[in-house]
Design brief:
The complex is a heterodimer of chains A (503) and B (165).
Chain A lengths: L1 H13 L2 H19 L5 H8 L8 H26 L8 H12 L3 H34 L4 H18 L4 H16 L1 E2 L6 E2 L13 H20 L12 H10 L4 H16 L4 H15 L12 H16 L1 H7 L5 H12 L7 H5 L1 H32 L4 H20 L2 H19 L5 H24 L10 H14 L1 H19 L1
Antiparallel strand pairs in A: 1-2
Helix pairs in contact in A: 1-17, 2-4, 2-17, 3-4, 3-9, 3-15, 3-18, 4-5, 4-6, 4-13, 4-15, 4-17, 5-6, 5-13, 6-10, 6-11, 6-13, 6-14, 6-17, 7-8, 7-20, 7-21, 8-20, 9-18, 9-19, 11-12, 11-13, 12-13, 15-20, 18-19
Chain B lengths: L12 H26 L3 E2 L2 E2 L3 H23 L9 H24 L1 H15 L5 H22 L8 H6 L2
Classes of the chains: A mainly alpha (503), B mainly alpha (165).
Chain lengths: 503, 165
């Protein structure tokens, strides 16, 4: 009951006129970011983070999280209209969304995509409202060993669940940890890995890494393709919206399943992209229209969009309650919290009630506002894509430079951004995942601190990570996640064998 | 550089990937070296500063060796990119490098204006009026949004000083 009271207080905060204005601004910017190639949720938020330095933290997080919702909505527009996924999580939306648009059903497809996004997000927000305070309350009892175990679980899930080869994921992740270690050691106060360079004293800021890896890297990739956008026109009128809405309830099962998949994949740091693929795959297998998937089946739009948005939203649950972000964008938001002087993690729910519940309330409102904005303004957003890349690219590059500079007012950071951009291009081309790298830079110091404090308590014995039921359970879950692909392969083989035996 | 390279040639994916993997492995070696310098044993306050990164470095080296092994076992199949594509990529990276290098000296606004103008003229072949509008408009909008409304200072050079901003 106390949560409900807190939530209403949150709505009171989120409904202040300034916060509403910030919300609308955030959504519009977010959709633009989602539509443009080379500007994704993570680096879009990273670039705009400096703009919020002068705002109160609650308004700042409302704006940034709304940029994120907007980006999630925006990805669908380009997928459906132009067969170009604006974001990785909307790749699965192109499979059926684009064929629908070609058949002249673009408006239906867009309405279905936006509405399912909204449904997915709403489901995830309700879950956050109910579960986050419990998780946070539970996590208050965590000692350093449990904290490290949670990080361990998070990173193991990456290795086990990502579609890239496991050793590439590990390599990328460890590069992140190494970069995080550069500079002043927070426990002993000693310098390390700086090799006498004064610029490296403060280590690498992950915001710079995000802007470089995701922003510049993406632009370099796009240049290779020499993309020429040839935009079409799109318009949604109210009749189509209502007609599509009337047809949507019959897909409630797909919707619900996608919500659950999305929430699960979002909480474990697998993220929105695998969630959307998984949900599409399962919907294709389960649906009675499964054979029509890929030819313009509306269910094929609902499934990935619901899951992607649910995952994107659910990624904030571990960020708020444990201080472990579930996606790169959530990691950037977490970096924002640190800059505004808030310590992410369970104590937020105790010490910063207004902030947490204001944010949660803004998720409800932001997604509603987002739905209305995208439904009414699709033609405008689609028009952005008709601006040629040779105009958009330099503007984005300049924006990235501004964003990188203003994090610490340092021109060296801008140079680092370019270096990260080239690295990002090379890694992406060689099939290394970038998300674990970024998350490791963000969490590296904290994970190391938890690890060393645990070892300090146990005089160097690794047994501390299996010393009580709680920590062992989390560690074992982590190990299961780490070897998940081996385990699931084994299970599948076993099932095949029994199936073969019974025939 | 041979002249008969047509549009369909380029470095193989395998070669580039092996190169990238090797660089990552070397990076791991640097991390290990730096960690040993910082001390990887136990000190007065528990594990020394290099303790954690040492193992991180080891992980990088080991996983890179495995990745390298996997890469070398692959057949020389697809291209990493065609030379023409790579040229396009570098036609963005190089000017961005010059832009980034010039930032501290001539300020963000002037550098951005020149950069945008160059990009639109060279790669987009636009008319000068459009170029002028955008390359001057973007810095002005940036100035208003960042310095005036959100109070975020950006690097300035002699031009801004001369204008008295």
């Amino acid at each position: 009951m106390e949560e409900l009271v807190n939530l209403f207080h949150g709505f009171a905060v989120a409904l202040q006129p300034f916060n509403i204005a910030v919300m609308v601004l955030g959504i519009v910017l977010g959709v633009i970011i989602g539509v443009l190639p080379g500007l994704g949720g993570a680096n879009g938020v990273a670039i705009l983070l400096p703009l919020t330095f002068s705002m109160p933290p609650t308004s700042a997080i409302i704006m940034l999280s709304c940029i994120y919702w907007g980006a999630l909505f925006g990805g669908a527009i380009t997928s459906i209209l132009f067969n170009i996924p604006g974001e990785p999580w909307s790749v699965a939306t192109t499979f059926d969304g684009y064929p629908m648009a070609q058949q002249g059903k673009a408006a239906e497809s867009l309405t279905a995509a936006f509405t399912s996004s909204f449904v997915g997000a709403l489901f995830a927000v309700i879950m956050i409202t109910l579960v986050a305070p419990l998780v946070a309350g539970f996590a208050l009892r965590f000692g350093p060993a449990e904290k490290f175990a949670v990080y361990f679980l998070a990173f193991c899930s990456f290795v086990g669940l990502s579609k890239e080869p496991p050793f590439k994921t590990i390599a990328a992740m460890m590069i992140g940890f190494a970069l995080a270690a550069v500079g002043l050691d927070s426990i002993t106060g000693q310098l390390r890995l700086t090799f006498g360079s004064t610029e490296l004293l403060n280590g690498f800021d992950f915001l710079i890494a995000v802007i470089g890896l995701f922003g510049l890297g993406e632009i370099f990739l796009t240049m290779e393709e020499g993309l020429n956008f040839r935009g079409g026109k799109a318009k949604i009128d109210l009749r189509v919206v209502l007609r599509t809405w009337k047809s949507l309830p019959q897909y409630w099962m797909t919707s619900l399943r996608s919500c659950v998949i999305g929430c699960w994949m979002g909480v474990t740091p697998a993220g929105a992209t695998p969630a959307s693929f998984m949900s599409y795959g399962i919907a294709k297998r389960m649906s009675k229209n499964g054979k029509n998937f890929g030819k313009g089946e509306i269910e094929g739009v609902i499934a990935p969009e619901t899951a992607a948005h649910a995952a994107g939203t659910a990624a904030l649950l571990p960020m708020l309650s444990l201080g472990v972000p579930g996606s790169p964008t959530a990691a950037v938001l977490l970096g924002g919290l640190l800059i505004w002087g808030l310590q992410p993690g369970p104590m937020l729910f105790v010490e910063q009630k207004e902030f947490v519940w204001g944010l949660i309330a803004s998720m409800y409102l932001g997604n509603l506002v987002g739905l209305i904005i995208v439904l009414t303004c699709v033609p405008i957003f689609a028009a952005i894509l008709r601006v040629p890349f040779s105009i958009i690219a330099p503007l984005i590059l300049v924006l990235c430079a501004i964003g990188a500079y203003s994090v610490h007012n340092s021109t060296f950071d801008v140079v680092m951004m370019l270096v990260f951009g080239v690295i990002g291009y090379a890694l992406k081309k060689c099939n290394y995942p970038l998300a674990p790298l970024v998350l490791a830079i963000v969490l590296g110091d904290k994970a190391e601190e938890a690890f060393r404090q645990s070892l300090l308590g146990s005089q160097g014995s690794l047994g501390i990570f299996f010393s009580n039921t709680l920590v062992s359970t989390i560690m074992i879950l982590g190990l299961i996640a780490l070897f998940w692909s081996l385990i699931s392969n084994g299970l599948a083989r076993l099932r095949n064998r029994t199936a073969a035996a019974s025939v | 550089m041979t002249t008969h390279q047509s549009h369909t040639t380029g470095p193989t994916h395998k070669a580039v990937e092996a190169g990238v993997t090797t660089v990552i492995g070397l990076f791991g070696a640097v991390v290990v070296y730096g960690s040993i310098k910082a001390g990887i044993n136990w000190g007065a306050e528990g594990p020394k500063a290099g303790f954690f990164p040492f193992y991180v470095g080891l992980f990088i080296i080991i996983s890179s060796l495995i990745n390298l092994w996997n890469t070398l076992r692959e057949a020389d199949g697809p291209l990493f990119a065609e030379w023409g594509q790579l040229r396009q990529v570098f036609s963005v990276i190089l000017p961005t490098g010059i832009y980034v290098a010039a930032l501290p000296f001539i300020g963000l606004y002037l550098a951005s204006a020149i950069f945008i103008a160059w990009f639109m003229r060279w790669l987009g072949k636009y008319n000068w009026p459009i170029i002028a509008a955008l390359s001057l408009g973007m810095p002005i909008v940036t100035y208003l949004v960042f310095e005036r409304w959100f109070l975020v200072p950006l690097p300035k050079g002699p031009v801004e000083e001369w204008l008295g901003l």
